[in-house]
Amino acid sequence: MKAFTVFLSRRPVTVIMSLAAVCIAAVFAFTVLPLDRLPELSVPRVTVETVYPGMASEDIRSLVTIPVEDAFSPVRGLERIRSISRDGSSLVVLDFRWGTDPVAASALVREAVDAVYPALPQGAGKPAIRAGDSGSEPHAIIAVRSISGDQNFAFRLADYDLRSRLRRIDGVGSVLIAGGAADEGHLRLDVPRLAAMGLSPPEFARLLSRETADVPAGNAREGLMELVIVNSGRPGGIEDLANITLPSPSTPLKINDAGEVNLETGRKNSVFVVDGKETIALEIYRRPGSDPVRLSGNIRKVLDEANAKFSHSVEISLIKDSAPGLVQSMISLAASALLGAAAVIFVLLLFIRRLRTCILAALAIPVSASAGVCVLAIAGRTLNSMSLGGLALGIGMVSDVAVIMLDLLNRSFGGLQTRPSPQETGEKAASIAMSSAASTITTAVVFVPVIFLPGPLGSLFGDTAITLSASIFAGWLYAQFCIPSLFRFTFRNNNDNKIKFAVFDNASLEKKYRMALTPILRRPKKWFVVAGMASLAGALLLMIRPAAFISPDAAQEVVVSVEFPVGTILENIGAYGAVLSESILALPCVKSAYGRAGAEDEDVNRRADMDYRREELMLHCIPVKGMQAHNALEIIRRAVTSADASAAISPYSGFSVYLPEDRTEALLGLSSAASFAVRGRDREEGLERVKAAERMLGGKGLTEAFRFRPDGTRPELRLYPNREAAAYFGVSSADIAESLFIMNEGVIATSLEIEGRPLDIRVSGNRDSWNISQNFSLENLPIKTSQGKTVLLGSLGRIERREADAVLARLDRSDVVYMDLPLDRSMTKTAKKIGDSFSWFFKADESVFSRYRNSLLLNTILAIVLIYMTMGAQFESFLLPLVLMLTIPFSLAGAGPTLLLFNSSLDSGAVLGLSALFGLVVNNGLILFEISEERIHCGYNCAQAVYSGASIRLRPVLVTALTTVFALLPVALNPLGSAQKSMAAAMLGGLVVSTALTLFILPPVFVRFFTWRELQ
Question: What are the b/e assignments for 877-888, b being 16+ CB within 10 Å?
Answer without folding.
Answer: eeebbebbbbbb
